[in-house]
Specification:
By secondary structure, the chain is an all-alpha fold. It is 37% helix and 3% strand. A two-stranded antiparallel ribbon has the order 1-2. A hairpin with a 6-residue loop joins β1 and β2. α2 packs across α5. It is globular, with a radius of gyration of 17 Å. 17% of the residues are buried.
Length: 140
């Protein structure tokens, strides 16, 4: 009986924590660099005068759609999980790639970021996928 209770508690904690980013993020450290270096390999050292865009603080439609979807099961804003970090995506692509990326979100894909593949999201409309991608491209 005690074993079953322990198993259920452990299982409920694991399920409850899936898809959440509970690790505190310290963005202040990324703006302390004396000599900023450009490029995706050292993006954390880039000093930016623009405000930090985050899912938690944004009222953007794309951000809200990301929060409501399963995106955060595989992606985080600033660190690689299963798929690339949103920030890495924003560093690689531009607004010119909006149609390409939104189609990839809907259809799924693989090969651009390693072996992991992204499953399709056919229930998303093209407009919603574009809103989500447009928000992701703002995370720099």
């Amino acid at each position: 009986m005690l074993r079953k209770a322990f198993f259920l508690i452990t299982l409920s904690i694991a399920i409850n924590s899936c898809g959440r980013n509970t690790a505190p993020q310290n963005f202040a450290d990324s703006t302390k660099s004396a000599s900023p270096k450009l490029g995706p390999d050292n993006a954390d050292s880039v000093v930016s005068s623009s405000p930090v865009v985050t899912l938690a603080t944004s009222s953007d439609k794309g951000a809200q759609l990301i929060i409501q979807s399963d995106c955060r099961n595989c992606h985080r804003e600033r660190e690689k999980l299963i798929g690339p970090a949103f920030r890495s995506i924003a560093m690689r692509y531009t607004g010119k790639d909006l149609d390409l990326l939104s189609a990839k979100v809907i259809k799924g894909g693989s090969g651009n970021w390693g072996d992991a593949s992204m499953g399709p999201h056919p229930s998303l409309t093209k407009e919603d996928a574009k809103s989500m991608i447009a928000f992701i491209l703002k995370i720099k």
